[in-house]
Specification:
The protein has six helices and seven strands. With 172 residues, it is α/β, with parallel strands linked by helices. The chain has a seven-stranded mixed beta sheet with strand order 6-5-4-1-2-3-7, sandwiched between helices. It starts with 9 loop residues before the first helix and ends in a 9-residue tail after the last strand.
């Protein structure tokens, strides 16, 4: 556990991304920080997808009412909608290369990042931004445990989410 997401070492994120073989799911509201902290992140995602790893992103709708409400709550100059648009721009560069992306408002106060049987979960506290969120590193050890509960939540959000792009080969 880390008191802040910013305390979670970038090397841990890189290790989890590198080791993942089956699944990489990034269900953060903006996912913006990943593009800043992980060198050549787009290329890594492209390679993972080409190797058969399922790669998915859930992001908030930059024009949505919930996003505007959270921006008022955060009160920071680098708005959520801007951070989401940066992620969408980066994802556009690897569009059609096996990376899926959907909009979801169901995770506005909870980010879940999955790397096969490892997971980083960050519950957002009131009036704080993502890097100030407490952070949990979970590992799957049993059926229907904490890991599976968060994984099921993300699956539901994915299934209800709206494709960022037109469906193409099931990757939206």
């Amino acid at each position: 556990m880390y008191p802040y997401r910013s305390d979670c070492p970038a090397s841990l994120w890189r290790s989890l991304i590198t080791k993942a073989r089956r699944e990489l799911t990034f269900a953060g509201y903006t996912n913006y920080f990943l593009w800043l902290e992980q060198a050549q992140f787009g290329g890594v995602l492209r390679r993972k997808a080409a190797q058969g790893c399922r790669v998915r992103f859930l992001v908030g709708n930059p024009d949505g009412e919930l996003t505007r409400a959270r921006e008022g709550d955060e009160g920071v100059a680098l708005t959520l909608s801007t951070r989401i648009r940066v992620t969408l721009s980066e994802l556009e560069r690897i569009r059609g290369q096996g990376v899926g992306a959907r909009f979801s408002d169901g995770h506005a106060h909870l980010s879940v990042f999955r790397f096969d049987d490892d997971m980083i979960v960050t519950p957002l506290l009131t009036h704080s931004v993502g890097h100030d969120a407490p952070t949990l590193h979970l590992r799957r050890h049993q059926d229907d445990g904490m890991f599976d509960r968060f994984a099921a939540h993300v699956e539901e959000l994915w299934n209800r989410g709206a494709p960022v792009w037109e469906e193409a080969n099931g990757q939206a």
